[in-house]
Amino acid sequence: MDGLPETGVTTLKGVGTALSNKLSRLGIESLQDILFHLPFRYEDRTRVTPIGAVRTGDSCVLEGEIITCDVAYGRRRSLLAYLEDSTGRIGLRFYHFSKAQHHNLKNAGRIRCFGEIRNGASGPEIYHPEYTRLDSAAAMEEALTPIYPATEGISQTRYRALVVQVLEKLDGNPLEELLSVASKYNINDAINYLHSPPPHANTDLLMAGVHPAQSRLAFEELTAHQISLRIVRAEIQKQMATGFQPPGTIYQQLMSSLGFNLTRAQQRVAGEVTDDLMKAQPALRLIQGDVGSGKTVVAALAAAHAAENNLQTAIMAPTELLAEQHFVNISNWLNPIGIKTAWLSGRVTGNRRLEELERVRIGDATVVIGTHALFQKDVEFKQLGLVVVDEQHRFGVHQRLALREKGVTGDHSPHQLVMTATPIPRTLSMSVYADMDVSVIDELPPGRKPVTTTVMSDEKREAVINRVADAVQEGRQAYWVCTLIEESEALQCQAAEVTADELTSLLPDARIGLVHGRMNSAAKATVMNEFKVGNIDLLVATTVIEVGVDVSNASLMIIENSERLGLAQLHQLRGRVGRGSTESHCVLMYKKPLGTQSRDRLEVMRESNDGFYIAERDLEIRGPGELLGVRQSGALQFRIADLLRDQTMLPDVRKVSLELMTKQRNKADLLVRRWIKDPERIGQV
Ligand code: ADP
Ligand code: MG
């Protein structure tokens, strides 16, 4: 029999084409992939909670009798059942259901179910609980239950059953040990432990992500990342680039026409960039700078520098809205000094697109701005000298390289700048960005009004809603961000829909819009535009609004369940307000009870607007003993590693990566393939 990395998922019982297609969408093709799709948290399902004792936000096992089960007609049709025990009653709501499920649940009698308690339309509710009938006398769980990320379309129960099958095969067919780590766990023990923790596992350690079995794998994952980045860097360094002449008159013209002076930090970074661009090796530089620190103008200066050398620049942003914003701003700077711009996005179609493509091809347009539409096949540059990628964490290295490829002629490559507002403590950035040089804009332009932040329990929700009403009355706009950490994006989006419904009925005078990740990009862009032009007063959103949207009239942001988000992400979200001249506010709502650590973290948000300070404090507070049980969601998407938590490993990771790359290159490649299945993931940090 082949090893697990080569064996396809269809060899498992019950996996046909439909399921294997779904798995494939998660990047899971082989049995090894199943093993490395690791639980992102654990749930304690070893006890039953009386229904009368549930609290919103808790995840509980409940047992009781189904007393009714009917279709409910609201903004969206749903199936609503009531479960009752001797202490109380709770709603179970399903937005996706079949006739058969309706029938079965109605007649289910006694069931045991599990899910998170929500404040639903009919009182406490669970959306899409997992449940089993109790007539089959199902045994209670004896150990922690692993929860897997992003199993969209595959229930957790079904996914767990697949994992169990693979673990059985692992016995006679162990994974290869690719690196030697001083750990009590070898790779196979560690994998076994995490998918199926024994009954008396140390829950606290597991929930905090610092169990030795987790550390063992985190080390391996960090090593795989580090290696993949070094491979990219080595490839790029084999190439040559056109070294630019020193900046001349056009560059100076742009400087003097800006209408403001660069901050000292901008000057320093712009200087580092020009130095890079004058070298005959392709630059690969990351510009890190807090939200609003003025990265765009540094990119525009670099584009002017390229134009002086008769070379084109491509500037890519992750969303239509952001790209359009760049197009407008950068054109306003560059067109007056004689540099022509072009605009390419998914919405530029037909003849308009053909015209723009032609202008790019013959070099009539010198600076081309757009979304990932920029690296499609039919885009041809006359002579591309510089690639700028904004908010790079939204793109993988793969996409970034595809754009760079457009400029490759023979052994010559364009220079690359990538920009990000994701603050990473300086101590970490060397490891995180092993493939790049890093510059930091650590200063904001003068005169910014910091956003005032308040922290409030969700018991004061009514007061918060009144505040939104007041803001709307005064003609200001607001964001209401619904955050839920869920294995399913669908559930997050449903929660946002429920909130939008609720706010619509409580705020009859406000024009309310909704954006979430399940909407297609055209629909999202439409709503965002309506908000931008002021036709929507209150935008209810999931965290999809995170990146770079500039609506200067929006001066209030409410963030629900803020205690559940990473500080980096909160900071990014908050950066959406405070962009205009009015005083801006952010309300961080939390659910009681709030632990001391969470309290401290929210306090950091209250006292500071500095992304780097926030990141460093976050690290200090969470330390090694983070007890949230959920991984920091946001930019740093690893399967199991957490850069902040695991940073003490980094020096060893660096050593081991170098060793593997130079002495055991085949193992290095196997390691990368094991962890970085989907090449899009490479470098998404
Ligand atoms: P970010 O780094 O978040 O991408 P932007 O580049 O969008 O920030 O800059 C935010 C705003 O600040 C823009 O309106 C920009 O024109 C302005 N800006 C940039 N640099 C300066 C400066 N040195 N002085 C004053 N305003 C500036
Ligand atoms: Mg920006």
Strand content: 15-25%
Rg (CA only): 26 Å
As for the number of domains, it is 3
CATH class designation of the largest domain: Alpha Beta
- What name does the CATH topology of the largest domain carry? Rossmann fold
**Bound ligand species:** adenosine-5'-diphosphate, magnesium ion
Can you give the helix content as a percent range? 25-40%
The residue-averaged pLDDT reads: 86
Name its key features.
single chain; 685 residues; alpha/beta; OB fold (Dihydrolipoamide Acetyltransferase, E2P); Rossmann fold; 3 domains; seven-stranded parallel beta sheet; six-stranded parallel beta sheet; globular; binds adenosine-5'-diphosphate; binds magnesium ion
In words, what does this structure look like?
The chain is an alpha/beta fold. The protein has 3 domains: 51-140, OB fold (Dihydrolipoamide Acetyltransferase, E2P); 210-447 and 646-685, P-loop containing nucleotide triphosphate hydrolases (Rossmann fold, 3-Layer(aba) Sandwich); 452-608, 3-Layer(aba) Sandwich (Rossmann fold), CATH 3.40.50.300. It contains 22 helices and 21 strands. The strands form 4 sheets. A 7-stranded parallel sheet has the order 11-12-10-13-14-9-15, sandwiched between helices. The chain has a 6-stranded parallel sheet with strand order 16-21-20-17-19-18, sandwiched between helices. It has a 5-stranded mixed β-barrel with strand order 2-3-4-6-5. Adenosine-5'-diphosphate is lined by residues 260, 262-263, 266, 289, 291-297, 421, 445.
